[in-house]
Amino acid sequence: MRHTSQTRREIFETRQRRRANLLAAGSTAAVLLALVLLVPRAPGWDAVQRAFFDGQIFLDTLPGLARAFVLDVAIFAWCAPLIALLGLAAAIARGIRRPALTPLRLAAIAYIDIFRGLPVILVIYLVGFGIPGLGLPRPWNSPYLWGSVALVLVYSAYVAEVIRSGIESIHECQRAAALSLGLSEAHVMRDVILPQAVRRVVPANMNLLIALQKDVALLSFIGPVEIFRQAGVYKSLLANFTPYVGAALIFLAVTIPATRYADHLLARQQRARS
Amino acid sequence: MGLLDLQGVTKSFGDTPVIRGIDLAIDEGSLTCLIGASGSGKSTLLRIMNLLEPIDEGAVLLDGQDISQPGLDPQPIRQRIGIVFQSYNLFPHMTAAENVMLAPRRIKHLSRAELQAPVTALFDRFGLTDRMDRYPDQLSGGQQQRVAILRALAMQPQIMLFDEITSALDPELVGEVLDVLRQLRDDGMTMVLATHEMGFARALADRVCFLDQGRIAEEGRPAQVFGNPRHERTRAFLHRVL
């Protein structure tokens, strides 16, 4: 008899758990019911439903939106590795101790401060309109190119700060141990400090990647017809906002799994460290 | 003159003097034990010998060469003087074997393949063959500390420094680490040991130095320092720890 072999504590905890689950399910159901019953009673609901939740328009525009989203993914895909490289380089440059290389260190500090301090959209406008405005020949006037450059500049500054925090979290003892073997400063950084630091900040960088995936949509303001701009085209064509809802759902389909995965990585790391 | 000579060495951290004029000659092939209370300067003295701490006054000579002069490149010196720390400080992202191979790979430009045989032999000698491919967090404290010793040995240093290497270990693991030291002593390795293991110091040291407030208050053969201490502070210290 398995049940009678439960301890008193186990029986108590099972009952507690059942109670907690019931309460959670009950309160969630109550809130959902209230939303479903109350929102349609709002005076403008019929108009909103027609403008934002038109099922036929949703189905008609979704394939076009998905095709446009491929461009978002492509921009993301070529920006991400560049951001990793530039972010790492800026983080290393910022931590340089050699006096002769001080200009490099100051440049890294200035770069990080400036691009972390500006709104992304402002950088996209300045770089995306400003540089092609110089009258460069094709393909050097492409908004894809300069929009991507703007994203890389902004996100590398964030990644640099995250990596730097990782470098500083490595205990001084690791440095001392590596130096005591006779390794050079460069090897200590490359072989001992950086591999540990980068691993430690993977979850934080995952969050930045998710933010980048969303900010790709900002490039639509300087030209590229990616998903957000495509939704705008459909909106004008059909005089209906439903394509925006479709675009939002497509973004969520990517970002929610990515967020969960980042959380999973973070949780695993915290378990490993405790 | 010894293999390593300290002459009138002083060192302060800010306004706090930690080493107040130490003369010490380490003879080749000898085992020197530094004893004394926490804060008496034992660890700092070892870090000075490995050039991890610059000194204020005095000189440190290795084979007659002044290695303490400011501006000297410390890397080639550190390759000749190994140090092992209380907290092991193994590199957690590398296996035990990779920890040991890192310095020879980077400094002597040897490949992993070239190092496989000598490193395996090193692990064999100290009974760690089956731990070569483990990561540090898969090893016991005693095993980690033994790997840390191998890592320092891999550069074939002339002198090995040990900074209270058994202090962080559970009592039942101290023995296996001390056994490694015995083996090294039998090989004729020149060793300097900051330690609280009075039994070990008494049995194996050629010379014991009692540090007190940054000075060597008393030194001599273990039988003399432990059996018949001349200095009042030595007597008080030994009374507390024995």
From TrEMBL, chain A:
Taxonomy, superkingdom: Bacteria
Pfam families per UniProt: BPD_transp_1
Statement: the UniProt record of this protein carries the keyword DNA-binding: no
GO molecular function term, any single one: transmembrane transporter activity
GO biological process assignments: amino acid transport
InterPro entries associated with the record: AA_ABC_transptr_permease_3TM, ArtM/GltK/GlnP/TcyL/YhdX-like, MetI-like, MetI-like_sf
Transmembrane segments: 20-39, 75-96, 108-131, 143-160, 237-256
Subcellular location: Cell inner membrane; Cell membrane
UniProt keyword annotations, A-Z: Amino-acid transport, Cell membrane, Membrane, Transmembrane, Transmembrane helix, Transport
Membrane topology reported for the UniProt record: Multi-pass membrane protein
Example of a GO cellular component annotation carried by this entry: ATP-binding cassette (ABC) transporter complex
Ranges for domain ABC transmembrane type-1: 69-262
CDD domains: TM_PBP2 (cd06261)
PANTHER family (UniProt xref): GLUTAMINE TRANSPORT SYSTEM PERMEASE PROTEIN GLNP (PTHR30614:SF20), MEMBRANE COMPONENT OF AMINO ACID ABC TRANSPORTER (PTHR30614)
Function according to Swiss-Prot or TrEMBL: Part of the binding-protein-dependent transport system for glutamine; probably responsible for the translocation of the substrate across the membrane.
Family per similarity comment: Belongs to the binding-protein-dependent transport system permease family. HisMQ subfamily.
Protein name per its UniProtKB record: Amino acid ABC transporter membrane protein (PAAT family)
Species this chain originates from: Allosediminivita pacifica
Automatic annotation (TrEMBL), chain B:
Alphabetized InterPro entries for the sequence: AAA+_ATPase, ABC_ATPase_HisP-typ, ABC_transporter-like_ATP-bd, ABC_transporter-like_CS, MetN_ABC_transporter-like, P-loop_NTPase
Organism name: Allosediminivita pacifica
Domain ABC transporter: residue ranges: 4-238
Primary site of residence: membrane
Membrane topology reported for the UniProt record: Peripheral membrane protein
Gene3D superfamilies according to UniProt: P-loop containing nucleotide triphosphate hydrolases (3.40.50.300)
Cell location: Cell membrane
This protein's UniProt keywords: Amino-acid transport, ATP-binding, Cell membrane, Membrane, Nucleotide-binding, Transport
One GO MF term: ATP binding
GO cellular component labels: plasma membrane
Domain of life: Bacteria
Protein name from the UniProt record: Amino acid ABC transporter ATP-binding protein (PAAT family)
UniProt cross-references to Pfam families, sorted A to Z: ABC_tran
Family: Belongs to the ABC transporter superfamily.
